[in-house]
């Protein structure tokens, strides 16, 4: 079944009025233990996994026997090992506001392509559970089994491809893995680069920072990004850039531009790393000027190019 824009909009509206996360409910977390955390006491494991939490939070859950490991109550002396499954629930609470102006750019029997607004997390994580793209789509299209093929940050707007069957997810996903796709972003940055073209290949670490982002690391993984100046707005000391990431690391564009001393307008935390020590990675408003603009890939053995209109805020 092909989906037209009118039907898509009506289903999204029904699923988001009111916002799913506007009603206070507990959130259940089920987290596997990765090998690198093996040998830690369970409280230390969670303090690393959730950096802004406190020891008292996890002690209370242990005392209430609501912190489980492999379905059994944990104790203060529980040591985790790779493959363990931990579980706990939050107190009932509402979730932060999200932008639900999700636009359908293209659909056929195999895929949806949407223009994602911001802020809107792709999937449940941290403070967001029901207020996330995947959960909204489940409510809006319960007969579909939509799968995200690639991801954007909660605060990044633009193109997202959703697969309607396992075969297409595998086919297009393989193109992202083998770098056969070409992604082009728009970024409005602070400052005025002197060169019209520049690039960076600073490596990015795998470990999360306090807010959940990433930092550069000599022992990290390769990351390469190219930049082209589209417009210098001298009166604002800002520059509009066309950005081509040749790798797909977490927060790659945001981190690379901040390190080049051209932070993205609105990216408070990457401009000042101290911000994330007391604030989460997802900003509460549509403040980040980063947009997934164009994407080319092979679809049904044909070259396919999709473009998400430049958001009004960039103008």
Main CATH class of the largest domain: Alpha Beta
Structural class based on helices, strands and sheet pairing: alpha+beta
Tell me the Rg in angstroms: 21 Å
Round the mean pLDDT to the nearest integer and report it. 94
Question: What's the CATH H-level superfamily name of the largest domain?
Answer: Pseudouridine synthase
Query: Into how many domains do the coordinates divide?
Result: 3
- The coarse silhouette is globular
Largest sheet: 10 strands, mixed
What is the H/E string? HEHHEEEEEHEEHEEEEHHEE
Unreliable residue runs = none
Report the CATH topology name of the largest domain: Pseudouridine synthase
CATH-defined architecture of the largest domain: 2-Layer Sandwich
Q: N- to C-terminal separation?
A: 37 Å
Tell me how many strands there are: 14
Keywords: Isomerase
Organism: Wenyingzhuangia heitensis
Protein name: 23S rRNA pseudouridine1911/1915/1917 synthase
GO molecular function, one term: 23S rRNA pseudouridine(1911/1915/1917) synthase activity
């Amino acid at each position: 079944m092909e989906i037209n824009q009118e039907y898509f909009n009506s289903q999204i509206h029904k699923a988001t009025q009111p916002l799913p996360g506007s009603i206070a409910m507990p959130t259940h977390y089920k987290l596997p233990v990765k090998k690198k955390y093996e040998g830690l006491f369970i409280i230390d494991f969670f303090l690393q996994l959730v950096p802004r939490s406190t020891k008292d939070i996890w002690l209370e859950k242990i005392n209430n026997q609501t912190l489980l490991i492999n379905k059994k109550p944990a104790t203060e002396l529980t040591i985790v090992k790779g493959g363990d499954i931990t579980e706990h629930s939050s107190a009932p609470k509402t979730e932060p506001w999200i932008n639900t102006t999700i636009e359908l750019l293209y659909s056929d029997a195999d895929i949806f392509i949407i223009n994602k607004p911001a802020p809107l997390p792709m999937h449940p994580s941290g403070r967001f559970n029901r207020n996330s793209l995947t959960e909204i789509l489940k409510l809006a299209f319960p007969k579909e089994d939509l799968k995200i093929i690639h991801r954007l940050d909660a605060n990044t707007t633009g193109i997202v491809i959703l697969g309607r069957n396992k075969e297409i997810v595998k086919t297009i996903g393989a193109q992202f893995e083998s770098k056969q796709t070409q992604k082009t972003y728009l970024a409005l940055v602070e400052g005025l680069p002197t060169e019209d073209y520049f690039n960076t290949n600073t490596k990015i670490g795998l470990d999360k920072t306090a807010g959940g982002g990433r930092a550069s690391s000599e022992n990290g993984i390769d990351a390469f990004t190219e930049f082209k100046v589209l417009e210098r707005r001298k009166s604002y000391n800002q520059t509009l850039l066309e950005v081509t990431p040749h790798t797909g690391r977490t927060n790659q564009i945001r981190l690379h531009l901040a390190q080049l001393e051209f932070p993205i307008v609105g990216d408070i935390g990457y401009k000042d790393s101290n911000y994330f020590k007391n604030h989460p990675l997802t900003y509460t408003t549509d403040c980040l000027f980063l947009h997934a603009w164009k994407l080319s890939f092979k679809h049904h053995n044909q070259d396919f190019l999709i473009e998400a209109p430049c958001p009004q805020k960039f103008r």
